[in-house]
Amino acid sequence: MKPRITVITLGVDNLEKSFLFYRDGLGLPTEGIVGEEFEHGAVAFFDLQSGLKLAIWNRKDIAHEAKVPLAESSPTEFTLGHNVNSKTEVDHVMEQAKRAGATITDPAHDTFWGGYSGHFQDPDGHLWEVVWNPQWQPIE
Which of 126, 82, 79 is nearest to 101 (CA)? Predict the structure, then answer.
């Protein structure tokens, strides 16, 4: 398989609340919630970086579309890593997430491997890591 990941979709329990968190709280660009005219179709897309979008979609609608049972969610299934250019930027993003209503689970700190990171959860419990890795600078 040649990797061509273009959309990361997060299942949410309250689409409007999560939409406001990502758009207003974190400032991610979006054209809004689309597909509301379709049963199981309401979704919002946010631009992340060239060729990659974040989607939020009701968990029950994902279960319907994928034909799997709706199950309990777990914050430890995966994390989303947001790499930044400095320790100061980690602190800034963590504070922005906190102001937006995120739960800080792991305040920013120096890591054992020489970086600096912290974790927060969005309104649905999805776990984000904000990280500065001195060996791995993000592409702007």
Answer: 126
Closest by CA to 38, choosing from 57, 11, 54, 51, is 57
Task: For 20-61, write each residue's pLDDT tens digit.
Answer: 999 999 999 999 999 989 999 999 999 998 899 999 999 999
Alpha-carbon distance of 90 to 67, in angstroms, equals 38
User: Could you tell me the domains of the chain?
Assistant: 7-66 (3.10.180.10), 79-132 (3.10.180.10)
DSSP letter assigned to residue 92: H
**Torsion on CA atoms 43, 105, 129, 8, rounded to nearest 10:** -20
β-bridge partners, 56: 10, 44
- The β-bridge partners of 57 are 11, 43
Tens digits of residue pLDDT in 108-135: 999 999 999 999 999 999 999 999 999 9
Contact predicate 88/138, CB 8 Å: no
